[in-house]
Amino acid sequence: MDEYLTLLHRTLKRLEQAVFDLDTPPRDLAALSRRLLEVSRAIERLEGKDGASGPSVAVEVEDAEFDEEAV
Predict the structure, then answer these.
(1) Which domain of life is it from (predicted)?
(2) Which stretches of 21-60 are DSSP H helices?
(3) d(C-alpha 68, C-alpha 45), whole Å
(4) How many CA atoms lie within 13 A of 49 on its CB side?
(5) What is the C-alpha to C-alpha distance for residues 60 and 45, in angstroms, rounded to an integer?
(6) What is the C-alpha separation between 10 and 42, in angstroms, rounded?
């Protein structure tokens, strides 16, 4: 998994270079930008930055007393 994450980071860096290079043909920018976002999201998922795929965090919550009038 670490090797895959390393590969994703290297790919992200290369995509960033291509997207922000002024010599990149405009016809290629849409596909490169889309791929840049995909790789970025994959890294976030694997590193747990978005909270969806990361470890769950338990939060203790106390229930308030039931209020019939509130219903």
Answers:
(1) Bacteria
(2) 26-47
(3) 42
(4) 7
(5) 25
(6) 13
Distance, CA of 41 to CA of 47 (rounded, Å): 10
Cα gap 49→29, rounded to integer Å? 26
Nearest by Cα to 8 from 50, 41, 54, 53? 41
Distance CA 39, CA 15 (A): 9
Q: How many CB atoms lie within 10 A of CB 42?
A: 16
0.85 exceeded by pTM = no
Q: How many helices (H) and strands (E) does the chain have?
A: 2, 0
